[in-house]
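Check out a protein:
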Amino acid sequence: WTDGCRRFVQRGLIRSKNIIMGRTDYIYFIIDVSNSMRGAKLGSVNDAIHNTIHRLKKVVNNSALDIKLVVMTFAKDVTWSGVLPVSLNAFVFEDLCVEACESAFGKALGELDEKLLRQEAVWSQAGETTILLFSDGLSTDDYDSQIKKLYRNKIFMEANRIAFTYGSAIYNLIKEPLCAFAGKESNIVIDDFITLDKMLLERYRQVNNNG
């Protein structure tokens, strides 16, 4: 190779069909920790995230892909796992607990919009963004104006968006905000963590096999 070609590889600018050298992907976990999630619901979310992180580490091992993780929880207030995303291998997920009765979904969407704008301005844009929402309740604040703002956010609109909820009865009550977030009903998962696992991990299995 020429020196110029080496420099392009080092900078992550040479792209193959299946993988980008030096590519960075972002995964956001957006989790409702309001009172309705108490008990088995939030416990199953904790287990699912632990398992997802474990499987991701196995799937992307030895590939050139860097995955960075971010966790946001919301109830009355919104809390982030940290100021910056954390690389998969360094990320430590701590079990979540219920925080309050309110479910400030609109406030959560507003903060997500700001974080994604910061990602676009500062962080690597070589790879994909995936946003997973776990919620079982109606918003107790105005989410509609915030989702409209997110529709103007390039990263949000291009992201892989998945919403997870519990039971058909609950889904029928909160279908509108979930569809607004996920973009289409096929991106909404009800009770089925196996399907959620496949939706999230399959693309990384393909990357690792082809990388």
